[in-house]
Amino acid sequence: MGIPLDRALDVEDMSLRTSQTSGLVAVTAEKFLLEANSDDGLVLGTSPLPMHLNNFPDPIGLLDLNTTEAALVYTQSLSGCQYPPNHQFYTKWGAAACSGVTTGVNCEPMATSIEMKAGQKMIYLASACMDTIDALCDFPTRSFVTPERTYEGILVNAGDLLIIRPNTLWSTTATKPSLIWVRNFHLMSSILDSIWAHIHTSIMPHMLSYPAHSHAPPFFIYIQAYWWKNIQLLSAGKIGPYTQAHIPNVQCWPGLLQMLFTGNIISLLEPLDARNYISSPNSDELKRRAISQAQTEIAKQTALDFRCWFMSKHVVKQNGEELDIETKIFRESILHLTTVVGFYARKHHRYEDNLLKKKLKGVLEDYSCGKDDSSSHKDNQMALVYAALYGNDHPTSNTFLPPGWTDSSFSIEAKL
Predict the structure, then answer these.
(1) How far apart are CA 185 and CA 120, in angstroms?
(2) Class for domain 8-78+90-188, per CATH?
(3) 349 falls in which pLDDT band (50, 70, 90)?
(4) How far is CA 297 from each of CA 65, 71, 145, 215, 307, rounded to the nearest angstrom?
(5) Where in the chain is the domain with CATH 2.60.120.650?
(6) Threshold 0.70, pTM exceeds
(7) Measured at the alpha carbon of residue 193, what is the angle toward residues 192 and 198, in degrees to the nearest 5?
């Protein structure tokens, strides 16, 4: 692994672990290895390990799934698109454990790959339906064991690779001393699930298994930039820096939804970031906010460019009837998603109420969805949003898609 034997590691002494503390102690890498190979040694676990990025060769085929990695590689060449520091650290990490170590329950807004390098683990999975507001509001307040979830236990041995979808609860027990490499990434087939998961883990941050993952949402910005560049190249008949598996097909309804709601969630990153509600931020926090704001403004412009391009070249029909794309697609989608976020955050008393309302209203005004004038309040969609932000009404649809937005009822055609 390239770690010096005298390197100090922060590890968990499981004999000291309680519900209030993780029992962290400092030991050398040599001490950790000695205890791991002793029949009566201490039960130690460590996560993450200080692993060098070169220690993460790609398992066969994983990059074909890892849209985050593809977007990060591409956007390194973009001017003005600043990265969070050590961005790979948020998506790649290692963990070692002695026999008997059991982790807590994990839940991530991204897909997770677990590659067993040595030893053996039993991995417990509990998947649940997380695609409605009610399911999000009830989770994780309900018991871990409920009829609504499906369960599976998988014994993973050295050389095995396990892929876990977003929103899946999982836990591990080391049946032998083990070493794993873990990646977190956005998977094209679950981008919309990841948007739900991001909303959920922003409002319920204790569900994140690894605190550094609170920095992961800006990856949506890089993914959107990567998509937009390649959509332009593809429309011009050119080959861009992409593999087809990572680019949504915006000529069909599911692909348009992927692009549309990725842009929408970027507009909501700032209201959803609990760190922006700190009343007395220090200089590092202020710098982080400035970088985040710059990233978001670039992404908003990208979303606007895509909207203008799409409207100029496409006709959208619902049940055969042509729609006003700007109002019925772009505006209605952000109105409804903002309604969902406002209702969900207020239900859980997550953020200071008036400040959250102000931030969400700012998002709507960016989309020209209404300002504080009488004509806007007469608009039915704005009335629904204000009811969700200021009243006790449940959003009219129980998913983050507006009512009636089914795949079968929409068609996209090129303009003649």
Answers:
(1) 23
(2) mainly beta
(3) low
(4) 28, 18, 42, 17, 15
(5) 8-78+90-188
(6) yes
(7) 95
